[in-house]
Design a protein that fits this description.
This protein is α+β, with helices and mostly antiparallel strands and 96 residues long. It contains 3 helices and 4 strands; from the N terminus they run E-H-E-E-H-H-E. This is ABM domain-containing protein.
């Protein structure tokens, strides 16, 4: 399958909290890829100023649906929220 959409979540996470954020990413990467409809890729990108998780999907609709999924709402969001120093920036892109 081809990636036709990206869900980009950019988070301000202090350096001391980044190992905990990386653990949330690692814990849910495989379940995300195996159980979320349309999920194709998931990458953790780290910069000095922020941390970003880039999710690849087969459609914009599946990217939007993931944000309201039980995994995102009850596991990923709950695990990451205490680590944020500001609200995350969430964007969905379609591939041209």
């Amino acid at each position: 399958m081809k990636v036709n959409a990206y869900l980009e979540i950019t988070m301000k996470i202090e350096e001391g909290n980044r190992p905990a954020a990386a653990k949330v990413y690692t814990d849910y990467r495989t379940p995300f890829l195996e159980t979320i409809e349309g999920a194709l890729t998931k990458d953790l990108l780290i910069r000095e100023e922020d941390v970003q998780v880039l999710h690849g999907f087969d459609s914009v609709e599946h990217a939007k649906t993931y944000l309201s999924s039980e995994m995102f709402q009850k596991d990923v969001f709950v695990g990451l929220q205490p680590l944020w120093s500001a609200d995350p920036d969430v964007k969905i892109y379609s591939v041209a």
